[in-house]
Amino acid sequence: MIRKLIAPRPGEQDAASAAAQVRAAPTPRPWRQRLAGPSTPMIAVAALLVLVIVVEVLTEPTFSSPANVTNLLRATAIPAILAIGMTMVILSGGMDLSMGSILSISGIAYAKCVEAGWPEPVALVVTLGLGAAIGFGVNGLLIGRFKMSFFVVTLASASAIGGIALLWSGNRQIDTSGSELASFLGNDAWGNRIPYGAVLAVVLVVVAALALKYTVFGRSVYAVGGNPEAAALSGVRREWVVPAVYGLSGLCAALGGVMMAGRQTIADPSAGGSSIVLYVIAAALLSGVAIAGGAGSVYGALIGTAFLQVLSNALALKGFDNSWQMLMTGLILLLAVYFDRVRQRLAGFR
Length: 350
Known about the structure:
Layout: H1 2-5, H2 10-24, H3 30-35, H4 40-59, H5 66-91, H6 99-115, H7 120-145, H8 150-169, E1 174-175, H9 180-186, E2 189-190, E3 194-195, H10 196-214, H11 216-226, H12 228-233, H13 238-264, E4 266-267, H14 274-286, H15 298-317, H16 322-348
Antiparallel strand pairs: 1-4, 2-3
Helix pairs in contact: 4-15, 5-10, 5-11, 5-13, 5-14, 5-15, 6-7, 6-8, 6-13, 7-8, 7-13, 9-13, 10-11, 11-13, 14-15, 14-16, 15-16
């Protein structure tokens, strides 16, 4: 009672306040900070990738053969380019479920242009413009300008665009074996060893990473996905950033469609099924792209794509069919989402 009536002297009050702050401050936990770090998933997946490659080289002689390595690089190029667009969309806080349908209709559009006698470079530019226009004008504006749910918009556009691709092609595959440009992008290889498509994918990944890190647009993408309210207060115009991101996603899907037409020598209206979309999402999330947006990198998406592709190749060489590869992709997607939640919780303990 007496102690309550005695006011503490100034020095004693400061000391008590400092002590209270020390007691209230969370104990530093470096291991949690390391696990919650933005680069941790990418480093972990890169380590797993190296481990799988080493095991396969030691146990499966076919894996390291030049022909298999070339095929592996060729197969990785298309999902790697798709992963660039999908990563940007996820960073902005969305997801593009229509990417597979845009890929399908782009392959059909390119084949139709070439069939009509258009020069192949013109057909390529028109096809890329079509993909970007669908992404920007349909998905992007509905999500960014009219505030509609990305899930509903991209799911609906996936169904509609897929239907248009079937109607436009007459529900048939179109021969593209005569297209030198499509073959160059999707099938040909320098010295029969290094596919040009794989080189293009690496170049585009580097360009996208630099744009995200050093340009106003790139920082706006992270800001819109990380904290939309703060981004709006800072003057970032979400209503234009989001359509631009979906436009780039459509552009990547269109390029993937032309490359696939060149690789398979046919334009298939059902080439971009839902499995390739899930595959690309899994590749992006696996290496640390936050599903809520605002964190991650396209380098991580490239590593995730390479890991999934190497794992699929290893399973195929051991005799497992596509059903096992689909099962693996689904499980990895679930694990990636779970670990993303764990990282978010650990980050909350900082």
